[in-house]
Amino acid sequence: MKLLFVAAFLAVAAAVPSSYKPEYKAPSYPAPSYTAPKYPTPSYPSPAYPTPAYPAPAYKKDNKYDDITITSQSDERNLDGSSQWR
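Predicted structure:
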């Protein structure tokens, strides 16, 4: 079987014409020479954003309750369309 495969491969390789065209080479063009655009320099007032007229609010966290830690969670969806969440 291997000999048949090798013989078929060699027959195909021998039947291929050897007069292929050389590899295609893409034409090369000179780089375009464009002048760089000249944009006007933007003028912004100094400073760009004025300071606010009032101070930032200082919020204090309400600590009359302890933080809650979640220890387990369950979400059950049944085939009959009912569900239960705990």
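Summary: The two ends are 68 Å apart (CA to CA).
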